[in-house]
Hints:
six-stranded mixed beta sheet, 35% helix
Amino acid sequence: MSPSVPGDSLVCLDGVRFAYGEREILRGVDLAVQRGQVVAIMGGSGCGKTTLLRLIGGQLRAGSGKVVVDGQDLGRLSTHALYAMRRRMGMLFQFGALFTDMSVFDNVAFPLREHTGLPAELIRDLVLMKLHAVGLRGAQSLMPSELSGGMARRVALARAVALDPMLMLYDEPFAGLDPISLGVTGQLIRRLNDALGAASIMVTHDVKVSLDLVDYVYFVSDGTIVAHGTPEEIRTSKDPFVYQFVHAEADGPVPFHYPAPPLASLLDGGVA
Length: 272
């Protein structure tokens, strides 16, 4: 299995390392995402997936190595240039993160009002188009408290694509969704990515939906990329880590039991 060719890529990470103080989170990460691709980043909790997403989104800066987006090294950009780059990205947070005191319409209109000088009439038309794309044009006057979890996620998706981003970043887009909402959200991610001609990167634990949706998968463990490939390569992989993750097995390279003394030693009167 080999990653996308960096020269063809919208996003390319080369030898990226990152630490919070003395605690190393990522070490020597190489990753590439081509335009038009939907790519999943998978791995156990706490392995560095969300940190990786924040590095790509410019919310964090790598300690060493390069994070290159659309040919620009994010680590070398000025604050002004970095903000301009981030306006070309869309972000869907884990639970939507809608503004609770704004209507559905105003939530989707927010980035257009904040980052463009478009007239109100054009913003209205664009908002209705984005809400129509996610099937919620009729919900424009509702407040977030009146939405189901799946509807809120779709409104957040409409807001994330309001500026027609070149790159979409998703942090656990399927968390907490019922099977119908999960399927609808997955289809929307694929359809919107293809319609925009964008690239999408999503951090997710949902193996089944992701393998039916994405073009490529990276597995992260202990701060490094331990495996990668197309969905078909991942499904048929004999790599112990990939096999354990895909088939949800309790024991393997990722142990079920947290390190501890043998149980027998405790039952014999030993101490923990």
